[in-house]
Amino acid sequence: MTESSAKVHFLGVGKMGLPMAVHLHAAGHAVSVSDPSAERLQLASAQGLRVATDVPQALAAAEVIFSSLPNDAALLAVIAEVVAEARKGCVYIDTSTVSQQASAQGAKLCAAAGITYLRVTVSGNNKMAEAAQLTVMASGPRAAYDHVLPLLQRFGPHHFYLGQAEEARLMKLVVNLMIAQTSAMLAEGLTLGQKGGLHWQDMWQVLSASAVASPILKAKSVQLGVRDYTPTFTVEQMAKDLDLILDAGAAVHAPLAQTSLTQQLMHAAMAQGDGLLDYAAIIRSVERSAGLTI
Predict the structure, then answer these.
(1) pLDDT digits (tens, 9 = 90+) for 211-233
(2) Strand partners, 122
């Protein structure tokens, strides 16, 4: 695929979908977008993207269709629309975090309609999406992946082809499992330190320079060092992903005991009114349990 030839339609221009669509547009591709939110469409238009007034027509014209969606139900609804309206031979790429089961069901529907289906999950938050610093994980037909790789390269520097089926879905769950566990580790460690008399900012400075200073910990240190829980990914969103992770573990009899406990911390944070804060707000939940003043 040449860098100036693709006709692209992007379904879902939320916090992740919009910057990805913008990068494709900036690369010279003809990008149209659709979304159920008028506010998101206004933002897309303000960034130079063409809002589709006739979505079936936009799907029929597209050579490549992308989607960025919140859950299984949304994915299956969009796939039904794609298989009804898109041309045979087009490539449909979904970037959502969804279950392997829903994705596999969508694969069968796409195959029956003559549409090539790629699962292309991404790791990173909306700020990383805006900076084109996402990690891209793909599975599906290898020839299709190779064909659209110039498009995927616009999203970030790291790209991995993982297999013919749902491997990209599972890999995204593995990554998010470890991200969630990092927040649980921080919650307990920071609470222990505070109870013992250590200062919050001192702990962050040491952790950021220590052997446990992973990229995600360093990325969080500036924001959380001043107790800023403005969300890049909310508690509610992480709880949804942990449900997918635990279901995936149950399907293959993988014991995920620590993950189950982390999910309970997410539920506690939601019960305490922190569901729309950054997922790291489970730190606040553990602090409350220890009798600390938030």
Answers:
(1) 999 888 998 999 999 999 999 99
(2) 136
pLDDT digits 0-9 by tens, 140-165: 999 999 999 999 999 999 999 999 99
Write the CB contacts of 67 (distance below 8 Å, at least 6 apart in sequence).
10, 11, 12, 17, 75, 78, 82, 92, 93, 94, 95, 96
The amino acid that residue 178 corresponds to is M
Q: What gap in Å lies between CA 237 and CA 28, rounded to an integer?
A: 33
Spell out the residues 6+ positions from residue 137 whose beta carbon is closer than 8 angstroms to its own.
120, 121, 122, 123, 160, 162, 167, 168, 171, 172
What residues are paired with 116 via a beta bridge? Answer: 91
Using the structure block, give the residue that is written with the tokens 């006739």: 54
**Long-range contacts at 229-233 (CB < 8 A, ≥ 24 apart):** 229/274, 229/277, 229/278, 229/280, 229/281, 229/284, 230/277, 230/278, 231/276, 231/277, 231/278, 231/279, 232/125, 232/126, 232/127, 232/278, 233/125, 233/278, 233/279
